[in-house]
Amino acid sequence: MRGDTSLLIIEDSSDDRYLYRRLLAKYQEPFSSIEEVESAEEALEILQHHRPICCLLDYQLPGMDGLTFLRKLKKLWIDDMIPVVVLTGQGDESIAVQLMRNGAHDYLVKGDLTAESLHRAIGNAVRTCSLQHQLNYMAHFDALTGLLNRALFLDRLQLAIKKAERNSYECSLFYLDLDHFKPVNDSLGHDAGDALLQAVAGRIKSVVRETDSVARIGGDEFVVLLENVDVNITRNVAEKLLEEVNRPTHIAEHEVAVSSSIGIARYPTTAKSAQELLKHADLALYAAKGRGRSTYHEFSQSQKEIWQRKQALEAALPKAIAKGELQPYFQPIVDIPGERLRGFELLSRWPMSDYPNIQAMELIQMVEGLGLMEPFNEWLIDEVCGKAVLWTKEFPDISLSINMPANQFHNTYLVDMFRSKLSRYPIDPSVIELEITETTLMRQPDASIRLLNSLHELGLRIAVDDFGTGYSSLAYLTRLPIDILKIDKCFFLEAQHDERNKKVIETVVALGHHLGLKVTAEGIESDKQWNDAKKSRCDLAQGYLFGRPTPCGSQSLKEFMEHFPRIQRKG
Q1: What is the pLDDT of residue 341?
Q2: Count of alpha carbons within 13 Å of 161, Cβ hemisphere only?
Q3: DSSP output for 103-135
Q4: What is the mean pLDDT of residues 91-117?
Q5: Residues of the chain with CATH 3.40.50.2300
Q6: CATH top-level class of 150-301
Q7: Nearest CA to 203 among 240, 256, 153?
Q8: Residue 125: other Cβ atoms inside 10 A
Q9: What is the pTM of this model?
């Protein structure tokens, strides 16, 4: 049988088969072919490999009646029932009801058969089955990507665990999340976001086996179930998924780059049930993001405490922002030469007695995950503007810099927020510097240029943070309205042991000066690194050698500078 419009006649009587063909010919139904078999066994053999548009089934077949056939057919095509019209020599309402309950779409008596009734029965059966397929698809598959949805995936997961327990093998569950999906929606629109999700879904399926289950269970969240795999295969698949998903995607004439993080849990090694597998994979995903994203992490039992901590912090964070419990910490930036104060970088901290070691990256990830970026950014901008008002009275040339989170950078509300805040505070906007990582800028370079131009037009200064760790081109660098390049600390760390890193630093400094930019050396922690920064002709320096991030409270600048005895005030 070939094609999707073939008809299968299952009838042991040659006279009846001839009758069906003659009646069908009157309507010239465009079947690609009409196949005939004389037994239910032969029909089931064919139906293992081919799906006709409809079956005409004789109820009384030798060796198997129509009811038994329908039950076997249902097992064969469990997710995709085939339209079946049953034909019988005599009418029996009780049999008809049983047939319909087991998958028959119509029931006709051979003695009453006409071309019209046969044609109508086939047409109704095909249309009814098509509607059932659509409803079944909507109930079990994600409409955007065609992947399994949460409900069907959970069913598959339960079955997989039972099989694994019965056959004594292991399963691996991957929880995959895109790291920078929201900026795509914000800057390019939801159509572009949908196109990216479709591309990611296709890439995930290209890595795993056809027998593996892949589902989309949230906006940019995917899960993958691998059955009967060991830990080495699991890790190999995780690495391939990261490599494949992280490739740039061309959407609407834009090159979009997102990274992904993966959490992994295994049955029965680290979880004993479907719900535990999902929960533990989610915990592992959280840990992967905490390690810098674009990586995978395997669940361990110690992460239960991490999960409890995460839940407590996420419950408390909205109130902390609303009540002003977050604190700004300030790390000094010095001029070269002279070790004189140039300004400070403002870093966000959340002092909590129960959980004292909340890192900046963890805080930002929680803020993003809870959808609190707007109130957080409003607090941050108020803090930097308020300090600028106070400290410029003592030091008119001071600069104060703040970091722009990657997931919010391309959101245009930032321009409106800065415009509104700057109108309320009596400060020169150039006092404030916005730090954006090189990787964030190059994720959507054209959108970055537009947004940076808007921010620069407000009078704000722009610094490219962690320069040298991304993949920006000179062509884009010359188009960006930037004022400062901050060389990533890894170069000064490695320069102590590798002369090539010194050459890289000197090249970046020369490039920055050629473009009229100031260059900052980050991560200066030793006198050796300090000397390297001076020899390479960097303009500014920042690091623990001059001072760690420190809370200020209501201190004046003069009082605050007592925390940093190595630095002289510019006077």
Answers
A1: 92
A2: 19
A3: T-SEEEEGGG--HHHHHHHHHHHHHHHHHHHHH
A4: 88
A5: 7-140
A6: alpha beta
A7: 240
A8: 21
A9: 0.56
